[in-house]
Specification:
Blueprint lengths: L1 E5 L2 E2 L5 E5 L2 E6 L6 E9 L3 E11 L24 H20 L4 E5 L8 E7 L2 E5 L6 E2 L3 H5 L3 H11 E2 L3 E7 L2 E6 L2 E2 L6 E3 L10 E4 L2 E4 L10 H11 L6 E5 L5 H6 L5 E6 L2 H13 L5 E5 L2 H4 L9 E4 L8 H10 L3 E6 L2 H11 L3 E11 L9 E8 L1
Parallel strand pairs: 4-6, 7-23, 13-15, 18-19, 18-21, 19-20, 21-22
Antiparallel strand pairs: 1-5, 2-3, 3-4, 5-6, 8-9, 8-12, 9-10, 11-14, 12-13, 16-17, 22-24, 23-24
């Protein structure tokens, strides 16, 4: 079946929304304002799924001619005027808090038009290296200079010429150089240090954020956008004087920042290499009141949590396990700082904290940590009633 319509909205996962004859159709790779001819690929009782058969006209909010997007399908909103695209993301957050929590929140937006990332993971197939097209194994090459900054074209040329075998390539751009990790074999000389199937690196990437230095693994977790990381720390603040428990603490980005005035900080992280990094980062920054342990928060939830005045959580997209939320409520900290890369699981978890807790000023900070994508970082400062 073929239908025509205008894309009037966009979903969390980047699909365009068309309403036709009282029924919604979700359309891949179409943006608000596009008028499209749609081939229906699946009919459901309450909605349809479809793909664009033909663009009849492009949205006036697109900024490249003929529907082009230099960053490709992994960055759908890069094709749109920045403010228009960021407003779409803010509205999704606001509407979901209303829908799932029945709460009219005040969005505090933090714009970010710096698309550069400090870590980029690329897929590899023979000599082709790049990102996957949406829901396929087809590889395309985005504009590397936009994502990695000056010198990215030279880096890309080097990895395509000097890596054999393997299925992935991770590039890390740090303050002390450029680093590479791959499951193939690297024979080039461009990088400060590298990890491949035959070699372990001798030097760690190091980045300075908000006046503190952090070492990390080449392919380990660290906030991927410098502006976003600094903005998150600014929102969280470092004036607390009591005991702080930081769950999912990674290499200590938040723990060491809040340690400035805190009496003590305990960071809990599952991945052992990040815990080792965090301990080294405490030494690197001459911080003696922050300790780090390697532990699954699911296991931690089976125990009585150490007392803290403030609990900070920055979980993966899956959010917090219910048992951990119950332990936090039993501990009854005065404040919970919830930072999230998936606001839908954040909403689910906040719902479990009510009514004993409330969101301070009904305000949720929305950082465009991943500009051009559908993702944002949200921070809620939650206080005990």
């Amino acid at each position: 079946m073929i239908i025509e319509g205008e894309i009037i909205d966009i979903t969390n996962d980047g699909r365009g929304v068309v309403k036709k004859d009282g029924k919604v159709t979700f359309v891949e790779n179409a943006l608000p304002g596009d008028i499209v001819q749609i081939e229906i690929t699946k009919e459901k009782k309450n909605f349809n799924l479809g793909r664009v058969k033909k663009f009849l006209s492009y949205s006036k909010n697109r900024r490249f001619k003929n529907g082009e997007n230099p960053l490709g399908e992994a960055y759908p909103l890069f094709a749109l005027d920045y403010d228009f695209g960021f407003n779409l993301k803010q509205n999704i957050v606001k509407n979901n808090f209303k829908k799932f929590l029945n709460m009219e929140i005040n969005i505090v937006p933090h714009k970010n038009e710096d698309y550069r990332v400090n870590k980029l993971r690329l897929h590899k197939a023979e000599k082709k290296v790049g990102l996957f097209e949406n829901k396929t194994n087809k590889i395309y090459v985005p504009n590397m200079e936009t994502l990695l900054g000056e010198g990215a074209s030279e880096i890309y040329k080097d990895i395509t010429e000097n890596i054999s075998g393997g299925k992935f390539v991770t590039i890390r751009r740090a303050d002390n150089g450029d680093f590479l990790s791959t499951d193939g074999t690297y024979t080039g000389k461009l990088f400060t240090d590298y990890k491949d199937r035959n070699r372990s690196p001798k030097i760690h990437p190091v980045m300075e954020i908000a006046g503190k230095k952090y070492e990390m693994e080449i392919d380990g977790f660290f906030q991927n956008n410098r502006y976003g990381a600094e903005k998150a720390l600014e929102i969280i603040g470092n004036k607390r004087t009591g005991k702080i428990l930081d769950l999912y603490s990674g290499v200590g980005l938040i723990s060491l920042f809040v340690a400035d005035k805190a009496s003590e900080v305990l960071g809990v992280e599952l991945w052992e290499p990040s815990v080792i990094n965090a301990r080294e980062n405490a030494k690197l920054n001459n911080i003696t009141n922050a300790k780090f342990i390697a532990m699954d928060t699911g296991d931690l939830a089976k125990e009585k949590l150490p007392l803290a005045d403030t609990v900070i959580v920055d979980p993966p997209r899956s959010g917090l396990v219910p048992e951990l939320i119950e332990r936090i409520k039993e501990m009854a900290p005065k404040e919970i700082v919830y930072m999230s890369c998936d606001h839908t699981t954040q909403i689910r978890d906040i719902k479990m904290l009510l009514p004993e807790y409330e969101i301070k000023d009904n305000a949720v900070h929305v950082i465009d940590m991943f500009p051009g994508t559908m993702h944002v970082e949200t921070i809620a400062l939650i206080q005990k009633m």
